[in-house]
Amino acid sequence: MKNTKIKLILSAIMLTQIIMPVQAESREQKIYERCNEESLDNYKAHGRLKWGLRCELIPEAYYYNAINSRYYPRVWYPIASRQNPITLLNEYATMPTNENDPCEKIGNYKLGGQCLSSCYTPDQELLFAEGEMTIYDAFTNKVQKIVTLSDDATFEQLGKTERDIFAWVVSIKDTEHDILVIQTEQGQLKVTPNHPLVLSNGKMMTAGTLQVGQSLIREDGDFAEIISIDEIKYHGKVYNVEPDAKDENGQQSMNGHILIAQGFLSGSNFYQNSDEAKYMNQYLLRHQIPDTLLN
Question: Which ranges of 116-210 would DSSP assign to H, the alpha helix?
Fold first, then answer.
């Protein structure tokens, strides 16, 4: 069993508790923590983008891609970092969320990553090594392994494997969240609008971009057509989990970050709060997708 430690990260927006194995923190891990620490809402994210554009911290192309609502119901927002000249460690600045703030407010920090956070409500069931259980129960009972797709999984054979849990993300403070209740012919899923889900054509999409009539993929490979999508307000804590999906060479397995949530294929936080956000809106398992589904 891996040693673990608890990190407490304080934020005016949300208090989060990150639990992960003791090891040297990579840039990816630091971005992961920073994104969950800030967890900006859409309004503040827009303010930061406008400030960054005005102060020439981000290029126009970044700005327009970040607010492109054809892909994201919520916008991407930047975080800033610099290397401490003494410790040589990356430090993160709190960038303004008011577009009219002075441009010199963060000094010599530069663009250090981008965020788009996602979480589950505590009653959502995920598939762990012990079987299906709510993410709340799994966190409370310190479950160590989670079930993901295997590295060689295809549409014809959705193989699964067990992986160690790399990190838990848990909000400590009860806050209000927008939650989408996605009802299909074969069950229901409740996630934030920017949570990644796998469509029947193999494309990873955020929940807020889904439409009635599209289909999600069940863990057995069946397609489940969406019959309704409703938005509700949820006040309380939210939870997330990320598997350890690196191979012996330190490379991430894309399939290793596809979880089973309420029986559906669901992307982990990895797809949004790390450099691998580029895989959102792209096809996974594509080499086995019939051509007719790619039109």
Answer: 135-140
Question: Is 5 in contact with 22 (CB distance < 8 Å)?
Answer: yes
244: number of Cβ within 10 Å:
18
Q: 169 with 8: CB under 8 angstroms?
A: no
* Shared-domain flag, residues 213 and 140: yes
**Residue 231 and residue 180: Cα distance in Å, rounded?**
5
Decide: 198 and 267 in contact? Cβ < 8 Å. Answer: yes
Domain endpoint, select from 96, 115, 134: 115
Cα–Cα distance between 263 and 134 in angstroms, integer?
12
Report the CATH number at residue 141.
2.170.16.10
The verdict on 197 and 260 lying in the same domain is yes
Q: Are residues 95 and 181 in the same domain?
A: no
Q: Which H helix or E strand runs over 27?
A: helix 27-38
Report the phi/psi class of residue 61: left, alpha or beta, with left for phi > 0 and alpha for psi in -120 to 50.
Answer: alpha
CA 36 to chain centre: 10
Query: Is there a domain that residue 286 lies in?
Result: yes
Q: What is the DSSP letter of 25?
A: P
pLDDT score, position 36: 60
* Together in a domain, 39 and 100: yes
If phi > 0 it is left, if psi is from -120 to 50 it is alpha, else beta; for residue 24 that is beta
Cα dihedral across residues 152, 240, 43, 101: positive or negative:
negative
* Cα–Cα distance measured from residue 258 to residue 197, given in angstroms and rounded to the nearest whole number: 9
| Mean pLDDT, rounded, for 250-262 | 89
What is the C-alpha separation between 79 and 106, in angstroms, rounded?
11
Range of the domain at 279: 125-294
Question: Can you read off the two tokens belonging to residue 236?
Answer: 């309380």
The length of the chain in residues reads 295
Asked whether residue 30 falls in the same domain as residue 56, the answer is yes
The per-residue pLDDT for range 41-62, each reduced to its tens digit, is 666 777 888 998 998 888 888 8
**Whole-number mean pLDDT of the chain?**
75
- Predicted TM-score (pTM) of the model is 0.63
